[in-house]
Specification:
60 residues; mainly alpha; 2 helices
């Protein structure tokens, strides 16, 4: 049997919960459909933007 690779289990779960939380937040504050769609993409991308800003702040 082949080896199973189960990397990212906990971090994937944390990201999934954070995505759902961000999605709910952005959808609740959307005034129209366009803002809801934009909120969906913001919920997908906010971790990358956050890490970018932190690294920029730390000058790494």
């Amino acid at each position: 049997m082949g080896k199973m690779n189960n990397s990212g289990g906990v971090s994937g779960g944390v990201y999934g919960l954070a995505f759902i939380g961000a999605l709910v937040y952005y959808l609740q504050h959307a005034a129209n459909f366009k803002e809801g769609v934009f909120g969906f993409f913001k919920a997908l991308l906010w971790p990358a933007i956050l890490i970018y800003k932190v690294l920029q702040f730390l000058k790494m």
